[in-house]
Amino acid sequence: MKIFNLPDLGEGLAEAEIVRWHVNTGDYIKADDPMLAVETAKAIVEVPAPFSGVIKATHGKPGDTVATGALLVEFEADGADGDPPPRATDSGTVVGSMPTSDEDYVEASISGAGGHVKANAAGSTGNTSAPGRVRAVPAARALAQRLSIDIAQIRGTGRGELVTVDDVLQMAGAGRPRTDAAAAHTTANSDARQGTSGQPDRRAELAANRTGPPGLAAASDAEKLRGPRRAMAQSMANARDNVVGCTLFDDADLNDWHAEQDITSRILRAIAEGCAAEPGLNAWFDGEALTRRIFGQIDVAIAVDTPEGLIVPVVRNIGGRPVSELRRDVDKLKRATHERTVSQEDLRDFTFMLSNFGMIAGRYATPVVVPPAVAILGCGRLSHDVVPTKSGSIEAHPRMPLSLTFDHRCVTGGEAARFMAAVIRDLQKGN
What we know:
By secondary structure, this protein is an alpha+beta fold.
């Protein structure tokens, strides 16, 4: 019997949501045939079979969120003694490594040592099978460590009492709300017990707020964030914790523009000019190692508003390209984004960010830099402003509000201002 775990789909995310299964228990499947579709942060990905065999069991149903590394499928594989063919040793059939071994991830809680041990616990029957040993998926273990939660105190709800990401979130008070009102009330009261310091536990406040303020009728039941909205929440929390943002505002006078000028492609060209003037804004920054990597190629992530949430495809290598080519690439990416067919390659490794929110509303904003990038340009709604002329008269000119947020740990105010000046110079050209 072989098992197949949810692979790392190449985005560095801890989980994915099952969209649909293509197989049922008892089905025979060939290597590389699609087994199921999962929704990652921004795209729907088909997960193929790592080898041929009979499906003995599937784990999870459509709508379930599965942690990376968690059990998905149990196989009776083709080959002698159920071993997969040799080709399965390269299990990177989606993106990256796909673990297919029988190994469970076990964490040993060592009193007084503060360390962790990873061991092979095949055949373990649960968290109580060995004193001090906890079976947990890697993502759950990492999350528990980040939240300073003792994973040994969590009772897993996964197969064989395996601790999942949801178990850790539930322990932290941020898990899925109970549907039974009495159970929620009991949970809130239980969590309201004070600690040894005499201060209420933070989890009590979180639990008590799950049902909403008394007497207030909610427009809908609480829903778990999924797909792009969940990814946005995680990305913004990461940015809050790891970026020192500072925002610079200015306006570009577009009075010399011709009527046929395309706004988005002109903005991209202007960003390329800004990066040529100050290459330090087209970079990645590692705050822990205090290292900066400046790129020659400019790959711009463009925020696209969709009903499912914000999705950010990447326009590659914008420097020195005609605006007509840039427009073509933008249209192609936007179409694929709205159809949810955008590829994983088109969602990663951006070096600069653009938010053209003015196409909807708003003049200025404080756009958020997503690490490891160091800068994002926000473009507001065009308006006609009264401006003085060199002759001393006044005129109404179309102007574009600009908001540049940069990570002030590695970008100076002078660099940001020179970047902005170069962007404005290019935007104010007639063509």
